[in-house]
Write a structure and sequence with these properties.
Structural class of chain B: alpha/beta
Largest interface: A-B, 32 and 37 residues
Shape of chain A: globular
Strand content of chain B: 5-15%
Largest sheet of chain A: 6 strands, antiparallel
Oligomer: heterodimer
Strand order of the largest sheet of chain A: 1-6-2-3-4-5
Distance between the termini of chain A: 13 Å
């Protein structure tokens, strides 16, 4: 069952599976891949925003990014069992 | 000779220290801070290598990828590809990578290498990497990448020697290593072979972020920080201001008694000393404000604040990415509007540009401080808060709230449903360097004093002329200034501004205030000093207006300055950044309408209550 990064629980280790385009040649998806959201990369949600849990702070590689839920929804993940 | 000079460009991910390297290599003082997107324009500098080779060094905006998604990234892409008008293709690229963040930065290095230009990789922040126990096998990385790799520490004077030696040598041969299609796989391979990383993040970052990014704790921390700044700007600066004030009063009195009562004395004392002096008094407050801004910028906290406020700003039709451009606008709207280049979405960018003038820039601080000092009693509220500081805080909040409201209206008008992206990097925390902060403050102080000595003094003297000439004829009934050009202009304008409570002296001060907002203060000082009759020595401006203006007029003027579009440089930079006179007209029109409307309401209510 596919799970997206936006639903990942706080501070749970997961592995990126893929980034999905929500439209043809999705520039946001392309940028996410540039930033290191690629298959096999460990990822973790570090914090959630004060209103509606949006945006998220995500640790990918050695870097932290703030992503909105809509952006995080493109990142499909696997949670290590 | 330009033919003999080597064209070198610094490229790399945002916030890897390109500008710090640029400053170190060229002796420049371009702005550096700890967040992505400080540099949004290409900057050229010159240097000579130890062997005497002349180098033209180009500092470029940071980019995550050559597939640019924002105007600042496009500049970097165009220069690297030789497409930028007015720039030749660089002879050598110095690709800069943060040694603590190689997983992200090496991907861009590979992308740049594929351009096929001669290139050196500078591993910057090697000191920070060493502290975190990160080991990088430089020789191995060099062999695997096929390009020369040097270690640099841009923040240390001796940290760029190896880079200079490399630039000095023969241009490195083009890499013969083919770039594979999967850059990320290649980066992993490089890191696995040449980098030892004890843990993925700095332990300190994790600890601070637990609090700083906490939904409740983080917001609380942010409000305390912002609130403390305004309290400090008022309470800590006071003794220094009193000192400067006393100095100017003393000098004015000394000059007045030393010189005969003639036109020259009036020009020197009323025009120059009291006029320009009335602005210099605010130097301590401006420096305190910048001290806080500089420390916040260097610490890496600002992108965290942008994260906390993102949702709130979306609600208002902006984005978390607008936060840093808008915060820069507290210093001055001009760099703030330029910083909006880091916003990818053109609609978000336009909204940010249009509301940036509503952020209280430091040039408004003298006006606020003067009026608050004259009309708000110095009292302690609730045991700890300085009432004047509270009012100042409220004025800054008024600017922010109106910016959010204006952005919200724009969002309604354009009925925007499209998705906007955030994708904001949170850098590692850094302790601000004392010397960097001091240099930054020194820069601000000299910029401010140059403004005082240049445009402010010039306009003040001009205004003195206008308020002194033509000299009233014998037997003219009324004050001499009424007969002068300034008096007549002011009286003519009064018809328009009387409904919002401005007297003719304020009307005069509004005109030179177009060029620089602080001049409104010095102009008032001059106008009142010139109009002082007989032996009644014109003293300092503050007690004078406290005695002569009604509270309603003062409040109305304060409110006017929350909105007023009186700054030619801001309008000019809006024109440059948007390439549209229509947007300039829109900005001017809406700001003027808001200012007039809000002042009218304020004046009516305050008059009715008093």
């Amino acid at each position: 069952m596919d799970q997206s990064l936006k639903d990942l629980k706080l501070r749970v280790e997961a592995i990126v599976d893929r980034v999905e385009d929500v439209q043809a040649a999705d520039p946001i998806a392309a940028r996410l891949r540039d930033l290191g959201f690629v298959a096999g990369e460990p990822v973790r949600v570090v914090a959630r925003g004060p209103i509606g849990g949006d945006p998220l702070v995500v640790q990918i590689g050695y870097t932290r990014f703030a992503l909105r839920r809509a952006e995080a929804a493109r990142v499909m993940i696997r949670v290590a069992a | 000779m330009s033919a003999a000079s080597l064209q070198v460009a610094l490229v790399g991910n945002p916030n890897c220290g390109k500008t710090a390297l640029f400053n170190r290599l060229t002796g420049s003082r371009q702005k550096v801070a700890n967040y992505a997107g400080v540099t949004v324009e290409r900057k050229a500098g010159e240097l000579r290598t130890p062997s005497g080779q002349h180098v033209r060094l180009l500092d470029l905006p940071g980019a995550y990828s050559l597939g640019a998604t924002s105007p600042d990234e496009a500049i970097t892409r165009d220069v690297c590809l030789g497409l930028m008008a007015g720039e030749t293709k660089p002879d050598l690229l110095v690709c800069v990578a943060d040694a603590t963040n190689l997983r992200l930065h090496l991907r861009f290095v590979l992308e740049v290498r594929a351009l096929g230009l001669p290139m050196i990789l500078a591993l910057n922040m090697c000191d920070a990497a060493a502290r975190r126990g990160i080991l990088i096998d430089r020789a191995k990385l060099e062999a695997m990448l096929g390009v020369p790799v040097v270690e640099t520490i841009a923040v240390r004077a001796d940290g760029v020697g190896k880079l200079l030696d490399k630039i000095d040598g023969e241009l490195p041969p083009l890499s013969s290593v083919a770039t594979p299609a999967d850059l990320h796989a290649e980066v992993r391979h490089l890191i696995a072979s040449a980098v030892t990383m004890p843990r993925r993040t700095a332990a300190l970052d994790d600890r601070i972020d637990r609090w700083a990014l906490h939904p409740v704790g983080g917001l609380l921390m942010l409000s305390i920080v912002m609130f403390l700044i305004f309290q400090a700007v008022f309470s800590w600066a006071a003794p220094l201001q009193d000192g400067i004030d006393a100095g100017i009063t003393y000098a004015a009195a000394a000059l007045r008694s030393a010189m005969p009562d003639n036109t020259l004395r009036s020009l020197l004392v009323d025009g120059m000393l009291l006029g320009a002096g009335s602005v210099v008094v605010f130097l301590p407050q401006i420096l305190l404000l910048f001290l806080f801004i500089l420390v916040l910028e260097e610490s890496g906290y600002l992108p965290r604040a942008a994260f906390l406020l993102d949702r709130l700003m979306i609600g208002a039709g902006l984005t978390g990415r607008s936060f840093i451009p808008l915060l820069s606008s507290f210093a001055c709207a001009v760099p703030g509007i330029m910083a909006a280049r880091t916003i990818q979405d053109p609609r978000d960018r336009l909204a940010t540009i249009l509301v940036a003038p509503l952020m209280t820039c430091s040039a408004r601080l003298p006006v606020y401080a003067l009026l608050i000092g004259a009309f708000i009693p110095e009292r302690t509220v609730g045991g700890v808060f300085n009432l004047q500081g509270l009012v100042l805080f409220a004025l800054y909040v008024a600017g922010i709230v109106s910016a959010l409201a204006v952005a919200y209206v724009m969002k309604l008008v354009r009925r925007d449903k499209a998705e906007h992206s955030l994708l904001l990097e949170l850098p590692s925390y850094r302790l601000p360097h004392v010397t960097d902060v001091l240099i930054g403050l020194w820069e601000r102080a000299s910029i401010f004093l140059k403004r005082v000595g240049g445009i402010i003094l010039t306009l003040t003297v001009l205004l003195w002329f206008l308020s002194t000439y033509p000299v009233a004829p014998e037997g003219f009934v009324g004050a001499a200034i009424d007969y002068s050009y300034a008096g007549r202009i002011g009286k003519a304008m009064e018809a328009l501004f009387a409904p919002i409570g401005f007297n003719w002296q304020i009307c005069i001060a509004l005109i030179p205030g177009l060029a620089a907002r602080e001049v409104a203060v010095s102009s008032l000082a001059t106008v009142y000093a010139v109009s002082a009759t007989g032996d009644e020595a014109a003293g300092q401006l503050l007690p004078l207006i406290a005695a002569q203006w009604s509270l309603a007029t003062a409040l109305s003027l304060i409110v006017w300055y929350v909105f007023a579009p009186q700054c030619v440089s801001t309008l000019a930079v809006i024109r440059r950044e948007t390439q549209s006179w229509k947007i300039v007209a829109l900005a001017t029109g809406y700001l003027f309408a808001l200012a007039y409307g809000a002042s009218w309401i304020t004046f009516r209510i305050a008059s009715a209550l008093s």
